[in-house]
Specification:
Strands 1-15-14-13-9-10-12-11 form an eight-stranded mixed β-sheet, with helices on both faces. Strands 4-3-5-6 form a four-stranded parallel β-sheet. The chain has nine helices and 15 strands. α2 links the parallel β3 (57-61) and β4 (92-95). With 369 residues, the chain is of the alpha/beta class. 46% of the residues are buried.
Length: 369
Amino acid sequence: MNPACLAVTRHWGSTIYTSEQVTSVPLGYDREATPVGEPLPEHPDNGLRRTLERCGQIVVAFEGKLGDSLFAFGTVTAIADALALFARSVPLTMLGRYGRLYPGRKATASSSPSPRFIVGDEPGVALARPEGEDHVLLCRPEQAHCRSDGRHAYPFLPARYYLAIEERVGLRLPGGPPFMPSRQSDPAVSDGGTLTIAAVTATSWPGRKDYGAERFTTAARIIGRVTGRRVRLHLVSGRDETAHRSWNSDAVRVEPVAGADLETLAALFTRCDLVMGNDTGLTHLAAFVSDRAEVIGLYGRHSHSKWRTGFKHHHALATLFSERMHRWDMCPVRDGLDEGDTERRTPLSAITPDTLADTAVLALERGRV
């Protein structure tokens, strides 16, 4: 880490955390030593097991927030794995803007018998219109706590969701890190000697979670200089944000991307060598859809580990406040932290463009570029 940025911590996606490093709730069993399908020590949730044994289809229903939905796919993956242990083949129906991102073969509702097992967020469940014997499972990130098995901690949100279902089912499920669904990434062809970078400037909270297009652009220039490669930089803004200005220099070509739909952005991310972004849904989407890109999220308010996918190519740079949220498994909203906390006001600008560029170059060297 750059000595000038001691207030910033760097975390690689491949980092394995221990129960001594992160506050966690013990699972009560050694997961690595427990065979798949083995009953767990605690009593299972018999109601959930009956639902799994009787349901005629799984409805994946997410409509609220992009990032929250992607991480909650850990729950859907656990349910699919549990059904496989019960030797059941149950069709999936995907609903909502973000439910449709779940990779799986979609079934038509008319071909699938009830009762349905509906997994999603509140807006998504509303679209599904539960009735009769349908079972509803809401995914609430504020209720998902870090777990550990005595040796390893599982701080990433998809893992938290997955292990919560495993405990309730009462059987060791077959999944492992990152506890996300298998997906098929589009093959991407390298753009010659050009380094293709996307910078996600979109943000849900401009005052707290916005690094700024200018800093991302400065970091891209430094990356190009250090690697000796010309840079093509896509500045990805949100739907309701002003588009950035395009410009071209000898070293960096800036191309604004504004108002693009999720399919277009997913295709863009698979063509990138590197994605840098605010702690927001589009950055998480890049990590989810692209095996090629090294993804670096910038965290100033929430835990950098909880709000990552757990994929090995999904890294983090975090302020001291984000590091505190990680170590103590805290949430500024859920835990009602003091707005006057000076650590909390540490801006993302504490992460200098030099530090971001240094991390990006190291990530590219560690990856496949």
